[in-house]
Amino acid sequence: MDKIIPIFHSLSKSMNGIHKSSCDVISIVQSSILYEISLMNKPSMQTVAEAAGMDITTFSRQIGTLEKKGLVSRTPYEGDRRIYLLSLTGQGNDMVVAINGTIAAKMENALASMNDFERETVLRSMHVLEERLRGN
Amino acid sequence: MDKIIPIFHSLSKSMNGIHKSSCDVISIVQSSILYEISLMNKPSMQTVAEAAGMDITTFSRQIGTLEKKGLVSRTPYEGDRRIYLLSLTGQGNDMVVAINGTIAAKMENALASMNDFERETVLRSMHVLEERLRGN
DNA sequence: CAAATTACTTGCAGTCTACAAATTATTTAC
DNA sequence: GTAAATAATTTGTAGACTGCAAGTAATTTG
Asked: Whole-angstrom Cα distance, residue B124 to residue B90?
């Protein structure tokens, strides 16, 4: 299938657009960081930086910004004082919930014009594809 | 379905990663600009900027950079001298072909472990979804 | 033909990025 | 047990990306 390229570019652009337009006050990158933290239990900086596919030095500054905005908190890890554990503040969690809600609404809106079978097929396909692509 | 959020974030991240790792010497943004130009016939700056979802001022500078790299050329439009028509140079076209080839290979690699039916289903689903999402 | 509009560029200022080097804490080796 | 190596994070620096406001030049409108 040669049509994969237009589909790839268009889908990628649309999803990026949805993500961006679902973020009011923070950037897509910051939203991704908050989301990754929300998936984990008190992760270290390194862990999240790697999950977010971001250089640790860039990540360190982003966490500084997010901390200043009151969305993330850094706690020294007692077992090893080089390490900081990250968690979302209440406000940070609210933001993740809000952004995800907006994204979900937009996706559901796009799926709304499909019949049940088609919608299930598309969702299952996205899931299968996502699994195959995860980790490049 | 509540699982749409993890699928959305993971898929979005994977596709971005594939795009980025398929670009050696230019950025994702520049690759997207080249790709949009490749779809069109001598488009104006405005046209491509809008297609790429990018502010015209940022776009103007990116075109300057791409022109310096010898990937894009700007031709004054005779019918209206405010307008510049954009086109890919041979080198620019080669770059689009190379990037798209790498992306396609990575996608095909991910689809390779599926049977024919599943692969067709996934491709058709991506296409359907892309259509529904296009234009937000 | 003067005023408004359009297509594009430039000034500026803020954000994002990553490499190199620094800092602080921990582990390893003798 | 301490000096050297390693690890987690931060800071210096410098370049790329972004968009608003203001500028320039060409065209359209009244």
From this structure: 32
